[in-house]
Design goal:
The protein contains four helices and no strands. By secondary structure, it is mostly helical. The chain has two domains: about 60 residues; about 70 residues. The chain is elongated.
Length: about 130
């Protein structure tokens, strides 16, 4: 974790200093720093995925449900990353497009789970009524 913080501080300071010299280099340094931080964080996700799979096996949860949750989280994080990089580069319209696209992708991944929950709720209500 300390490495990620160190990378963030060094990248931020370098980008700030470079901004006075060449704006485009500052943007590139910011993007490179963000990519390094993202890769460093993704390496830690393997432990989380293993824990979730163990929980699925223990509580008999369909692995597809956990897979959908992981996809949604991945889309959310990558969307946020893309939005921030676009905003740092001064591309507000592209950032807005990425944000809307990410929301649509999240909705499309979550829709099967929502339908399953609604069907389960309706079947429970039908069984409970006389």
């Amino acid at each position: 974790m300390e490495r990620l913080i160190l990378i963030a501080v060094i990248g931020s300071v370098t980008a700030i200093l470079m901004r006075t010299v060449r704006q485009e280099y500052a943007v590139l340094i910011g993007i490179a720093t963000a990519v390094l931080l993202l890769l460093g964080t993704l390496l830690r996700l393997t432990g989380i995925a293993e824990t979730l799979h163990r929980i699925c096996a223990e509580y008999r949860i369909a692995p597809a449900m956990i897979g959908s949750i992981l996809k949604i989280l991945g889309i959310a994080y990558l969307t946020e990353f893309g939005v921030n990089v676009s905003k740092d580069a001064g591309q507000q319209a592209i950032a807005g497009g990425i944000s809307i696209g990410g929301r649509v992708l999240i909705l499309s991944c979550a829709l099967p789970a929502v339908v399953t929950m609604l069907e389960t709720g309706i079947s429970l209500i039908r069984e409970a009524s006389p």
